[in-house]
Amino acid sequence: MTMRLTHLRLVQFRNHRHTDLTPAPGVTLFVGENAQGKSSLLEAVQVAATGRSFRARHDAEMIALGEEWARVRAAVERGDRVEEIDVALRREEGGALPRAGREMRVNGVPVRRGELFGHLRCVLAAPDDAEVVTGPPHRRRRMLDLLLAQISPAYYYAAQRYVRVLTQRNRLLRVRGRGIEAWDEQVATLGAALTARRGDYVARLSTLAEAIYAELCRGREVLRVAYLPSLRGEKETAMVTWAREALLRSRSEEAARGVTLVGPHRDDLLLLVDGRDLRAYGSRGQHLTAMLALRLAERRVLLEETGEEPVLLLDDVLLTLDEARQAYLLAGVRQAQALITVTSAAVAGLPAGAAVYRVRAGQVEGERAHLS
Ligand SMILES: Nc1ncnc2c1ncn2[C@@H]1O[C@H](COP(=O)(O)OP(=O)(O)O)[C@@H](O)[C@H]1O
Ligand SMILES: [Mg+2]
């Protein structure tokens, strides 16, 4: 089955006052100079798909300046069904940070974030997002969590439960309260479940990402991706036992620091190029290639797990590749729907049937079918 984004509407979203557009079933190219509103379009798709943006630290940033609310609507076609996703952001007063309330609906019915997942799936690659490679470990954990949540909402709920458990346990550590054992048990069991799931998917993700990286650099370099879990053990049951013991061992240090030191909130991914730590030694180009390989690998995992191609969002990455790699990338996603931003329409190997839009000052103009 295919899943297609058939309509997108942005209202008072960043510099878009009101934008309506119809993406092509295959490739849609958004061409425009910098700061015209291209990335905002992809951001809006991600907000509709996952409730969150890849670049906004606070939801309120996405509301057009001077306005009180913003809205994103997406129509998604699946077989003979069409679903409407609607996300509204509303500015909230109070506090030092800009805040916004978020209201999400699917077919008019209010949903929580966990229920939003799966109606529209997407994978986004952007230079801004190279932090997934170069940034702190939580960026890589977030990547895994978002991938797994898009595959199974049950994972998202388990991760949320884990965060609540962690918050409670940390509070107890700080006030040196009683009854920490009950929380240890929860950290161990919930933590092991999350670790096992992450482990399964990293194994698949890394194989794919390593192969894609080799393609992108024509075999000149070798990427290796490995999971660095906090909890050790082959099977989930062994992880639970390991976690119980590790929590006991670190009890006094935890009490001193007031934080839990064992569990999947301490996981990371190891990224090596030719055996060297990519974070510390990689060039900007290698960081971007690794980011792209990871995101394209995610797309494959989502396809294999769900049987549906996620919408591929490529923000400013296509023209960083030479012509042969642009063609390789476009050929590899021929079955997928892709929304691609570029600063110049000189794209190699743009498939027939692609739609090309021009983006200028928050307005999207003039679709034309690409003829070639
Ligand atoms: N909340 C906002 N309200 C109004 N304008 C915004 C808001 N956030 C960002 N902008 C502006 O929107 C423009 C578009 O940003 P962006 O989508 O990143 O452009 P592009 O990807 O084309 O470079 C920028 O000029 C930016 O200053
Ligand atoms: Mg941009």
How would you describe what is shown here?
This protein is α/β, with parallel strands linked by helices. It folds into 2 domains: 186 residues, P-loop containing nucleotide triphosphate hydrolases (Rossmann fold, 3-Layer(aba) Sandwich), CATH 3.40.50; 178 residues, Glutathione S-transferase Yfyf (Class Pi), Chain A, domain 2, CATH 1.20.1050.90. The strands form 3 sheets. A 6-stranded antiparallel beta sheet has the order 2-1-4-5-6-7. A 6-stranded mixed beta sheet has the order 8-12-13-3-14-15, sandwiched between helices. Bound molecules: adenosine-5'-diphosphate and magnesium ion (MG). Magnesium ion binds next to helix 1.
Write a short abstract of this structure.
By secondary structure, the chain is α/β, with parallel strands linked by helices. It contains 11 helices and 15 strands.
List the helices and strands and how they pair.
Blueprint: E1 3-13, E2 16-21, E3 27-31, H1 38-50, E4 69-78, E5 81-92, E6 99-106, E7 109-111, H2 113-116, E8 122-125, H3 131-134, H4 137-151, H5 153-175, H6 180-216, E9 223-228, H7 236-249, H8 251-257, E10 268-273, E11 276-277, H9 278-281, H10 284-306, E12 311-315, H11 323-332, E13 338-342, E14 355-360, E15 363-369
Parallel strand pairs: 3-13, 3-14, 8-12, 12-13
Antiparallel strand pairs: 1-2, 1-4, 4-5, 5-6, 6-7, 9-10, 10-11, 14-15
Bound molecules: adenosine-5'-diphosphate (ADP) and magnesium ion.
The site of adenosine-5'-diphosphate has 15 residues, from α1.
